[in-house]
What does this fold into?
Amino acid sequence: MSTARIATTSDLGVLATVRRGVQISPQIVDGLWLTLALAVLGAAGRVVVPMTVQRTIDDGILAAGGPDGGRVLLLTGLAAAAVVLAGACTAMVNVRLFRATEAGLAALRVRAFRHVHDLSTLAQGTELRGSLVSRVTNDVDTVSLFVQWGGITLIVSTLQVAVATALMLVYSPLLTAVVWVSFVPVFLLLRFGQRLVNRAYTRVRTRVGAMLAAVSEAVVGAETLRAYGAQARTGRRIDAAVEDTRAAQGRAMVAVASVFSTGTLMATAVLGVVVVVGAHLGMAGDLTAGELVAFLFCVQLFTGPVQQATEILNELQNAVAGWRRVLAVVDTPVDVVDPGGQPGGHGTTSPRGPARVRLRGVRYAYPDGPEVLHGVDLDIPARTKVAVVGRTGSGKTTIAKLVARLMDPTAGQVLLDDVDLRDLTAASLRERVVLVPQEGFLFDGTVAQNVAYGLRGEDAPASLAGPLPDRVRAHVEEAVASLGLTDWVADLPAGLDTPVGQRGEALSAGERQLVALARAHLAAGDLLVLDEATSAVDPATEVRMARALDSLTAGRSTVTIAHRLSTAEASDLVVVVDDGHVVEVGPHDALVDAGGVYARMHASWVAQTR
It folds into this structure.
């Protein structure tokens, strides 16, 4: 049974999250060793200043024979050159990290987006669409912000602390020990703060996803909200989502500010302690004036990164929380596996031609739900028009989804020309089996561009943005003509170039379905799986749609989920599903004469249509 669910977040620790993220996006660490070498030079350049200060004071200003202006100028000139070189190295580090991280995060975004499409519609349905989109966009952006800013700061700051410590040891091992011992409580606090901020930002990323989902749903369903006067309660729902996000952000910032303030206080206290102890060492002759001043500069180099650590911690935890949400998507197992798309996979390619479909002992249960199909056996001969009928919830839609392999059976097999659908490559399956849903989804663009989505192989355009190539346009016009839709297209404001609007909202439901039928015609599958769409359309559109369907299904195997029994009357074979069982199979006339379940359904339908 399919149990794939998109988790709210990954349960990996911080380091494990970073390792997993780098594993998925190795471009992030491309050329890392050269970048680190440049970072070392950049960090080393920062200690030139305290060294210069020490030599300038002791050997220049306080020289035995009096101030030595020439030495002072030489030392400061050399220091300036070293600082400029260090700045150039740091700039190169920035450029290299920006390029590497952008490449890596682009790969992560593409990987996550591709994986979303590899998941079954059932798995996708476990997450709100707006929240799912936010993982591929907003959550990846949080990772980008940290890696490009916090990552640079973290690398340079770590090296700066190491170099500053080495130089402090040269000047005074005792004072160096004082600095490190004084900062032990800060390091312990940061470790505790990391866990605290981590939990806080995990809640923030979750709340942001929920807020975006609520806003997205309200925007898409704006017409329904207005129609039912539900703006006020929807507004309250969005306000609550915004307030939850604000509160979570506030709690996270309070946690960050608390840790940051403590770190700043400790840094100031450490500097005071160093001044007092250093003054005693100086009076005892163990430290020159230049060495003490240089040591204070080194302490600033040491405490600066430690104080910044809280801000870096802020960005790190925010990024890790976002990274975990992206990884939760990427690591969701694919329950409808493409055997040809796996490493070392050897899926079967099914040859084109008349399609025969068989179901053998098929059972299916939705996750955490009862079984909805119970040992279904069915044989659909090639070039046969089959209507699947039954009451709502009887299992007919589930049969259609299994035949189109939107999901796999819990038990049993669905065979296309004696090959299990699970053994077919996705490319071969989609080439032969075409699904036309009841509500044809249209992309923002023109009628022609939406029809052209059905093209396969060499004729498929590389991009559907902008005017279509002439050869693609010719295919679209041929599809429209073959389905008898030329007069309908002529009545559109701009013909095939008429914009359909977002989600096809500029067209009626019936017109959207006509576009979907033309798209299916271009796909030219051997087996069509149709969710009948003639309900809730005007009579003229219904007649046009019926004519288009006749042309589309001619000579092809067709499985139609029939909501109207007029479709069953026109089919070669009627399959009657009742409570998860196929109870009757046969031609319309034979089933009516048999006086069974179908005969009663048909008699009731006839009575209602009179």
Notes: The first strand starts at residue 357 and ends at 365. The chain has a mean pLDDT of 80.
